[in-house]
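re: that complex we talked abt at group meeting.

here r the seqs, copy pasted straight from the sheet so there may be weird spacing, ignore it
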Amino acid sequence: MDAILLQVLNGLDKGAAYALIALGLTLIFGTLGVVNFAHGALFMLGAFCAVTINRALTLEKVALSETQTTAWGTPLEIRTPYAQEWFGDFGLTIIDYSVPLSILIAIPFMLLVGIAMERGLVRFFYKRPHAEQILVTFGLAIVLQEIVKAIYGANPIQQDAPSIVQGAADIGALFGDPGALVYPWWRIVYLIFSGVVIAAVFAFLQFTTFGMVVRAGMADRETVGLLGINIDRRFTIVFGIAAVVAGLAGVMYTPILPPDYHIGMDFLVLSFVVVVVGGMGSLPGAVAAGFLLGVLQSFASMTAVRDILSKVGIVGLDQIIIYLVAIVVLLVRPRGLMGRKGVME
Amino acid sequence: MMKFFSQSSEKGDLVLIALFAVAVFTMPIWLAPFGANYPDLMQRFAIFGIFATGFNILFGLTGYLSFGHAAFLGVGSYTAVWTFKLLGMNPIPAVIASVVVAGVFALVIGFISLRRSGIYFSILTLAFAQMCYNLAYSVLTPITNGETGLRVLHEDPRIFDDKTVETTGPLISQIFGYQMQGMTGFYFCGILLVITVFIAMRIFRSPFGMMLKAVKTNQNRLNYTGVNTRPYTLAAFVISGMYAGLAGALMCIIDPLAGAERMQWTASGEVVLMTILGGVGTIIGPIIGAGLIKYFENIFSAFNDQTLANIYSFLPDGLSEVLVSVTSLFVGEGWHLSLGILFMLIVIFLPGGVTEGLSRIGKLIARRTGKAQKNENEGGRRSSPMPGE
Amino acid sequence: MGILEVRDVNKNFGGLKALNNVNLDVEEGSVHAIIGPNGAGKSTLLNCFVGRLDPDTGTVMFNGKSLLGLKPHEINQTGVVRVFQTPEIFTDLSLLENVMIPAFARRDGAFKLNPFRDVEREGEVRDKAMNILEEVGLQEDRNKIASSMSRGDKRRLELAMCLVQDPVLLLLDEPTAGMSRADTNATIDLLKRIGERGITKIVIEHDMHVVFSLADRISVLAQGTVIAEDVPANIKGNPKVQEAYLGGAHL
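got the structure back, here u go
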């Protein structure tokens, strides 16, 4: 029982990342009708926001020690981050919290990136065939990830969660069974965080006039355009929001998985599958499918499940479960779990 | 030249294919000024030419954009190595087996994926390819040898090989004593390139090919015209999968090693780029595209900071250092960055590819010299939307 | 007994009754017009004949065989061919190719794998396509790309694409909508000439001039119900029809 609960929790944090990326993908698709293959790159950019902030905060002042020497007899270098130098212990706290603090920078940065992307490239492709949209955004994704690779190298860069949420929560203890169910604190933070982001996006679309227009535009773009509402400018902002959501998902994911330059692509393929399973253009579908597939994947990789499966001759299901589910869903329910009629048929 | 390739009669086709064959087999001569006349590179031209030609039969004619064609390339490679392992180093069984097995894979994947069209089709093929890739790396390790890659070993059965005359050196594919390496390897690939291009040409000119073009333009009308489009698209998918399988087999005939990275979706993206760069829906376009990309990959990757510094050495120190560090972003390891930029530029400015660009230039010159002829049909055909929209 | 028999066809869209117990008999070789105000269910009815929609209840028999449950391409293969309201053509291909494709479809059936035949050698199909193009007056434009043609020419092209299939029953969905008077008259002449081949036709039309110059019989549809069916002369004076057109809220 505990093992199952643990797998559900394990799946949820990955599912949360899928859901956040898929949410932006489907939002862009629903409003702008554009298939954005560069969306994974936005996730990656977010992750590298965190890396950059961390690097900036930990820039070190190098001083030569007057008393201590190294084994070779040269003076020992004393490295102190400028943050500590200037702010003392408070500076160290800032460094400790670099990942969550990155959010503050990532929001405006990702918004700008998103808007720039839409204004500078994507808007020229609204009327072009989907194949060309796919290809140009695919090219953009390659460019973005290669730039990141040129700056940060090809190796994953470990980021630490704030020390207060490092380690694992003994959830089992809550139920009077200490040690039975241990779950890293940061993943709990991530889950709550993504819940908040998803709720914020939905609330924004549900309760603001802006959101209302966007939803109307998703349902029937032409009519809304005919009403004299400047739908294009709103859609630019929608693109920005989608970029922010993907970016934040990336920022917060860094302590779970050290980011490298192709982390975005890895997530993108799965997020596309999530979008398709959820139903193209359906926001609740994207979220539900994200969590669902995350948990499914987690279950398929459970040792117990694998043992049972291998007894009946099925091996490696954990590697392909998501794709299998996607294929089955597409064949049985071509519009996805919550897809609307008439979208991309 | 483009004009010839886009419209011609049957007899003209034979002339064209003969010209093409001459062009292929004289590559060692006319590529010499470009410094691209060494076998290894020319083999790649031919192999990727086949791959892109096959991809074009699907994408160029029907408009279905597959993002998973690398899977068939990988399947072809693994099959080829396995035929080597079991039957011996003769390339002919490897080619046949790879084409057949890749065709069977394409039949299964196509049967499922083609139930959907447009973006759904692209994502389905992508999902299938990723699935194959993941499986090759994990569970199927007994067949694929996982990360190490699959190679032929001396102790493999190779039942038709004469083991008495063997040395301990690396095993090389050979037929009638000709080793599939160097120029022999290139000519082997070249012959197959000419044959496959000829087949593609026939398909383009046949009623079957006409139906495929009709699928791209208006699938709905085709249904109401009494045509069942599914078998047509499936046939195109299987044929192009077989082409990919053949390309995969050739890779292993040249170098008997198959790895899963061949199936990665960036490889699928590369063949899309080749086709687009050259010109979707034209016969010669994808081959030009494949050639250009492999050529520039070769040149760009060869640069390093040292060679760059030599190039800029005539400039003042500071300036040359800046230029070296900027340029090095785009060459050597940074080749993919150039590729990505090229990708975007082509899609943005020249969705019809190089062939369209050439025909535009041709028209421009014709207009300048006042010899403009009315010719509505050629060139300028934008790649049209994916079907089912 | 007609070549097309429609019996008690009903179709609901949600709560809306689009077709209400529709009965129709089309005589072989005749021109049968279906008229009615907007939203009367004319297009819905036509869609039920070609497999785009399936009626909730009722039967559609063509030449004694049911058309229901068949896929669009299967229905076409029985000889029922449809001309669309907005021309459905192969915009990227030449006019000649546009007409050759349906000719191949008629000759080769729903699917034929013949990748090694040359289109150039298909003289018979080509000649047939050329003849039809000549008949509709497009032979000189045969090498032009279809998307470059005017709307009127596109409609004529689509008609040619349907005629080349030697249809038994031709369904025309507002063949003159949006045309100038001159184009309309030309189309009427063309359709009359086709009439001489004995193709049965069902015409949906708004333009009364067209209807009365072509039709042998007219069915009037209003709110999903056939309110009258008769020869043109009698339809003109039918009070129910006048009410549906003039008195009803549908004008």
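couple things i noticed - The radius of gyration of chain A is 23 Å. The longest strand of chain A covers residues 60-69.
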